[in-house]
Amino acid sequence: MPRVVAERADTLPALAEVFREHGYGAASLTLITEATGLGKGSLYHFFPGGKQEMASAVLAEIDSWFAANVFAPLEAPDEPRRAITSMFDAVDQYFHSGARICLVGALALGDGRDLFQTQVQDYFARWVAALANALIRSGRDRRQATGLAEETVAGIQGAIVLARALDDPSAFGRTVAKVQARLAAP
Amino acid sequence: MPRVVAERADTLPALAEVFREHGYGAASLTLITEATGLGKGSLYHFFPGGKQEMASAVLAEIDSWFAANVFAPLEAPDEPRRAITSMFDAVDQYFHSGARICLVGALALGDGRDLFQTQVQDYFARWVAALANALIRSGRDRRQATGLAEETVAGIQGAIVLARALDDPSAFGRTVAKVQARLAAP
DNA sequence: GTCTATAGATCGATAGAC
DNA sequence: GTCTATCGATCTATAGAC
To answer: How far is CA A102 from CA B19, B77, B90, B98, in A?
Structure first.
């Protein structure tokens, strides 16, 4: 039978789930050992920097996923409108239609804000820049593109907060659909 | 010289600041004693339920502030447009133009989500309902008012996330201004 | 009411056997 | 690599003097 955890990267999905579920500070090593099925010894073998390195690795993987599935298409030289559409598809998929929160946004609001400020800032800055880039190439005025991109990313993040607060994942889809429609309008 | 802390309610602003700064789980009693200037004995005298009761009391005070300054005007029988304008003024004031996060939203995303779910849900549900009510009375279509209210509240929350993530409070004002402008349009 | 002292549990992290 | 045992620090909460 194949091992569930064969290398460091195999632990990242479970780690990400724990941090999303409990935040950074409240994600104890006990919870992490249960979620990953690894003892503390193994965890510290993979992550000598401890919990902080675990969270940082999760953020790096998230950034990598968005870079490949969201940022790169938005920055690609052609098809900006199609890239924007696929961005919303990717967002809906990644956030499980509102049932999953954005760990980066949660870290920005909660604890770990100081520890991971650079990674959090880079993630949002690149998202806004990539979307603004696509908006400009799709014919938008340069001056308004950044503002529109900020408003869109904020709308997505706010939709996650709202869905989580209301305990109603469908609020995410409803709200994001409005954000997307506004972006498609001239 | 008058005492700084004369009764339970006097501790709430300092408590709120600690929870906003560190989240619920990472706000230790040591941090709380430093912020309030009270020893543990005094804190447990005021809040026999411990840290959970402290956070719950803070949420109740936040809800009370919004009820008086935001929800009630929105639900008042007249001047819905004026109430909406003053809502945005109150929001900008309360969140210090993006320099202060929304503790309710942060709790919704992070730890304490289970502990305070009812209070978090009530806060957002009432905000959306009150704003939708004002929108209907200002001439909006009933079917679209709730969606527009959700989008607006989400936009405000997302603006807070974005401003915090980018470490740029001015992103809050820029984004909220766009949300407000959209609401004022026919 | 407010304090200090401290209990009892849990934390992150380490050591060392295998 | 993975485990168990355990360290010292820190946590929430309580007890009791004043």
So the answer is: 20, 38, 27, 20
Copy the structure tokens of residue A28. 């104890």
Q: The whole model's pTM is what?
A: 0.97
Residues B29/B40, Cβ–Cβ less than 8 Å:
yes
Contact B109 A104 (CB under 8 A): no
Nucleotide nearest to B45 (CA to C1'): C1
Nearby residues of B93 by Cβ (< 8 Å), 6 or more positions away: none
Contact (CB, 8 A) for A119 and A59: yes
Distance in Å, residue B89 CA to nucleotide D14 C1': 45
Cα–Cα distance for residue pair A149/B17, rounded to 1 Å: 31
A165 in contact with B, Cβ within 8 Å: yes
Give the side-chain half-sphere CA count within 13 A for B23: 25
Report how far residue B4's alpha carbon sits from residue B27's, in angstroms, rounded to the nearest whole number: 21
Number of other CB atoms surrounding residue B48 within 10 Å: 8
Residues in chain A: 186
Look at residue A186 and tell me whether its pLDDT is greater than 90. Answer: no
CB burial of residue B53 (10 Å; 0-12, 13-18, 19+): middle
Mean pLDDT confidence for A42-60? 98
CB contact under 8 A, B161 and A165: no
Residues 6+ apart with CB under 8 A from B13: none
Cross-chain CB nearest to B105 (options A22, A150, A161): A161
The rounded distance, in Å, linking the Cα atoms of A139 and B35 is 52
pLDDT of B2:
41
Distances (CA, A) of A125 to A14, A173, B16, B111, B133: 26, 24, 29, 26, 36
Q: How far apart are alpha carbons B90 and B84 in whole angstroms?
A: 10
Q: What is the DSSP letter of B70?
A: I
Which residues make Cβ contacts (< 8 Å) with residue A185, sequence separation at least 6? none
